[in-house]
Amino acid sequence: MTRLLSLLALLAVAAAPAGPGGVWLFPRSSEFPGLRMMRLSKGADGWTGSVTTDWYGDVPLRALEVTGGKARFQVDNGNPRLPPKTWAATPTKSGLHVTGDIWERHVDETARRGTQADAQRLAFPVAPLPAPQTLKPDGLAATPPMGWSSWNRFAAAIDDRTVRQIADRLVSSGLRDAGYVYVNIDDGWQGTRGPDGAIRPNARFPDMKALADYVHAKGLKIGIYSSPGPKTCAGFTGSYGHVAQDAKTYAAWGIDYLKYDLCSGEGIYRTAAQVKLAYQAMGQALRATGRPIVYSLCQYGRDRVGTWGRDVGGHLWRTTGDIEDNYASMAAIGFDKDGDPANAGPGGWNDPDMLEVGNGGMSEDEYRTHMTLWAMQAAPLMLGNDLRTMSPATIALLENRGVIAIDQDAKGVQGRRIRKDGDAEIWAKPLGDGSVAVALFNRGTTPRQIRFEAEDAGLHRIGALTDVWSGVPDNATRRAWTIPAHGAMLVRVKG
After folding, report:
1. Which three-class secondary structure string do you get for 46-102?
2. Which residue in 11, 3, 326, 313 sits closest to 139, CA to CA?
3. Taking the alpha carbons of 374, 380, 385, 389 in that order, is the dihedral positive or negative?
4. How far apart are CA 103 and CA 345, in angstroms?
5. 224 φ, ψ to 5°?
6. Alpha helices in 226-271 (DSSP H)
7. What is the crossing angle of helices 364-376 and 327-336, to 10°?
8. pLDDT for res 10
9. Residue 6 has pLDDT above 80, yes or no
10. Residue ranges of the alpha helices (H) in 100-196?
11. Cα 236 to Cα 407: distance, rounded to the nearest angstrom
């Protein structure tokens, strides 16, 4: 009987789940976040661990506790604006059951035990960062870049045929001649890397060099998109570990503009210093190609990017998250997250994101406010609509030469809010010829009369006044206008 009890005890121990320590392998999947393995170990100072992902590399397990064989810990994707999420890892007879949330995805996977050899095989490669360096100005982007970008309208569903049609329409609509010259392919063009490590376009872009040649033949320039992380925001191949190689590829294709979006890089470059160096690495790589390429930094306005964007080779830098096609989003970005005017000027610009004009989510008055506000801020003007289906009213808003002239003014001064009275705001922007652009905004939901004085424009008196949207001179003594709900008035005044 004693021998039987001992045998039963041994069998019970063998059947019990093992502890959580060691190397655990996940079923390989391309889905976000691309879990590879988890490592848990106990040392003199307690438990430590990490989970290795395709998107964010090695993610540390924070606040890790192991009680009764079950591990609980916190995981984040590096986004400082999102709180970390609590995960659990529970040993079972079939492995380690891991559950938790990251970004907008729920993880529910069972991992199996692995070896140290597996850990070495699945280890996430470490891409070195350059030593800090300040890049000199290269003369590009003397005025805010103007053009079209695919993301707002097409997201990742973009292809060669559509890009060619957009280029054609930029020409036939007159928008190219109004200054919109960049045709920028955002996320969604990437395929896989070849045996040599070079990035290949996916099947929707059979020949990127031929596409660039087509765009150039129209008197236009072409842009492309990538990320310093291993994955782009839409899950395509990023530039991590291939920065210099990708820059050379873009130059060989004839690319004129690169938008570099932090995306999965935020989980790898977790400090402000690392983010800056990651952007510097691509800035140096683009310069090394010898091809003039406008460099757009997209890291959502974090880490006071306007103070160092130029130093890493950037010509424009996002001041905010993504815009949406509604007044609330546009106003929050344009009025409240407009970037420090001290950082903007020839060669480097605050970027409040692309235009939504023509996408249908706002009224004509709201789109006029959108254009007026971006022009007053000397913001890059990147169209985000489907140019093939534009109405005459949309074209009129986008190609107004007086408004564009204020945005593109060679003095390069970003306009500022001068006065605010409830829902009414007055902005002023000094121009290169000595005149001043003054914008009156009504952020309220009913019409309102707004008045400005010569002092708002920094003048003692006003000698001439022009309604910029109509292009018609107005009475120089006029000081008040009734502005529609969510509307704007833009005037150019001379002292």
Report:
1. EEEEEEEECCCEEEECEEEEEECCEEEEEECCCCCCCCCEEEEEEEECCEEEEEEEE
2. 313
3. positive
4. 35
5. -145, 175
6. 243-253
7. 20
8. 38
9. no
10. 116-122, 151-154, 160-172, 175-178
11. 34
Give 58-75 pLDDT, tens digit per residue: 999 999 999 999 999 999
Q: Which comes out higher in pLDDT, residue 102 or 31? A: 102
Using only the alpha carbons of the chain, give its radius of gyration: 27
Evaluate whether 235 touches 56 at the Cβ level (below 8 Å): no
More confident residue, 213 or 12: 213
**Cα–Cα dist 106/33, whole Å:** 10
What span, in angstroms and rounded, lies between the C-alpha atoms of 253 and 223? Answer: 10
Tally of CB atoms within 10 A around 219 = 12
pLDDT by residue (tens digit) across 253-265?
999 999 999 999 9
Segment 13-33 shows an average pLDDT of: 77
Cβ 202 vs Cβ 232: under 8 Å: no
- Are 314 and 283 a contacting pair, CB within 8 Å? yes
Question: CA dist 377 to 114, 173, 353, 386, 453, Å?
Answer: 55, 25, 12, 24, 21
Distances (CA, A) of 39 to 18, 147, 255: 14, 47, 42
Backbone dihedral angles phi then psi of residue 436, each to the nearest 5 degrees: -135, 135
DSSP secondary structure, 473-485, as one string? EE-TT--EEEEPT
Q: What is the pLDDT of residues 406-419, one digit of tens each?
A: 999 999 999 999 99
* pLDDT reading at 5 higher than 60: no
- Residues paired with residue 294 on neighbouring β-strands, in sequence order: 257
Quick: pLDDT tens for 314-361. Answer: 999 999 999 999 999 999 999 998 899 999 999 999 999 999 999 999
Catalytic residues: 261, 322
Q: What is the pLDDT of residue 18?
A: 59
Report the predicted TM-score, pTM, of the whole model to 2 decimal places.
0.94
State the pairing for strand pair 199-201/95-102.
unpaired
b/e per residue 97-129 (b: at least 16 CB within 10 A):
bbebebeeeebebebeebeeebbeeeebeebeb
**Pairwise CA distance, residues 276 & 312, whole Å:** 7
Which amino acid would we find at residue 47?
W
Flag whether pLDDT at 487 surpasses 80.
yes
What the block records as the tokens of 411 is 């003095």
Task: Give buried/exposed letters for 24-58 (b at 16+ CB in 10 A, else e).
Answer: bbbeeeeebbbbbbbbbeeeeeebebbbbbbbbbb
